[in-house]
Amino acid sequence: MADNSVNPLMDRLQAFIKSDEERQTFITDLIEVNTKLERDLRTARSDHLDQLESRRMWQERAQDSEARLKESQGSAASNSFMLCLIDGDGYLVSHFLRGMDSMLTPPKFNDNFISQGAVGGGEAATRLLDNIKRHIRHIEGAMQWKIIVRIYANLEGLLKKYTYIDFVDEKKALRQFVAGFTQSQPLFDFIDAGQGKERADHKIKGL
């Protein structure tokens, strides 16, 4: 009778031991899984931080490159220039004497600016500059360009011609006009190409 009562206890003890071993194994597995998850999480977090740092670095580089590019473009634009060459023989009073409506419109003589001498020359230069800017305003960065204007003409020949046709009241009016044109804008020059046929054209082609 005693043996019969012991056996169930032993069976229960063995079952308890087995269950405890399974529980210990389960807990050990949980700890290992948790340890692995924590390690993976730290790795993922470290990778994420590295990616954020890398992204931030590349964003900063991109922004710096963009800023440098804009600065370079601005510098290039500010250092760029436009050279406008004009044959003044037979063209002296073309567009700035007729309101500068279009640089492509055939010239029309008007003695308004030349008769004003230096003042007229300054006004002519200002209108010419404004007109050039209007024609290049659609070009990116063009408003920062330096605009250089060179007018070549046979001044002695023009003086004789205008005096002959009574285009100016005084002989010195044309020279005053030329001086006013040149002095009013720092990059504008009205240059005497010398006497001789097509001297102005020769100068321009040489450039």
Give a written overview of the molecule.
By secondary structure, the chain is mostly helical. It has six helices and three strands. The protein has helices at 2-79, 112-115, 118-136, 155-164, 172-184, 199-206, and strands at residues 81-87, 146-153, 188-192. A three-stranded parallel sheet has the order 1-2-3. Helix 3 packs across helix 5 (172-184). The longest helix has 78 residues, at 2-79. The termini are far apart.
* Strand arrangement across the biggest beta sheet: 1-2-3
What percent strand?
5-15%
Unreliable residue runs: 93-110
Instruction: Report how far apart the termini are.
Output: 131 Å
Name the helicity range: 55-70%
Assign an overall shape: rod-shaped
Major β-sheet profile: 3 strands, parallel
The count of DSSP E runs of length 2 or more, i.e. the number of strands, is 3
**SSE-based structural type:** mainly alpha
Q: Write down the secondary-structure element order.
A: HEHHEHHEH
- Rg from alpha-carbon coordinates: 45 Å
Mean pLDDT: 77
The number of helical runs is 6
Which helices and strands appear, and what pairs or packs with what?
Elements: H1 2-79, E1 81-87, H2 112-115, H3 118-136, E2 146-153, H4 155-164, H5 172-184, E3 188-192, H6 199-206
Parallel strand pairs: 1-2, 2-3
Helix pairs in contact: 3-5
